[in-house]
Amino acid sequence: MEIAVEVTFPSASQARAAVKALIPDNVNLPEGLTLSMFFRGKTVHVAIGSRLSMMATAASTLDEILEHISVSRQVMAQG
Q1: What is the torsion angle, in degrees rounded to the nearest 10, for the CA atoms of residue 63, residue 17, residue 72 and residue 32?
Q2: What is the share, in percent, of the chain residues with pLDDT greater than 90?
Q3: CA 32 to CA 34: how far, in whole Å?
Q4: Closest CA to 13 of 33, 41, 35
Q5: pTM for this structure?
């Protein structure tokens, strides 16, 4: 199973900053879970792959990533 999400930021520099901030949090994933995260232009691309038996873990991981992206957008909007 693979879940892919794209989130657009106001600028490419903000998208890059969001990815750089999230990368350290997404190491040492559980076995059977894969994560790809990168930015292209103003868009952050996130893809999570998992075995069907780990769907709940994949959904939880995606929820956490989206929450962190939301926080980073709020922080950047204040700056």
Answers
A1: 10
A2: 51
A3: 7
A4: 41
A5: 0.86
Both tokens assigned to 45: 């691309």
Find tokens 């990815």 and name the residue: 19
Q: Residue 73: what are its φ and ψ, rounded to 5°?
A: -65, -40
CA distance 32 to 43: 26
Mean pLDDT, range 18-41, rounded to an integer: 86
H or E segment at 66? helix 55-78
Closest Cα to residue 29, out of 4, 10, 54?
A: 54
d(CA 49, CA 22): 17
Contact of 61 with 30, CB cutoff 8 Å: no
Contact criterion met (CB below 8 Å) for 22 and 69: yes
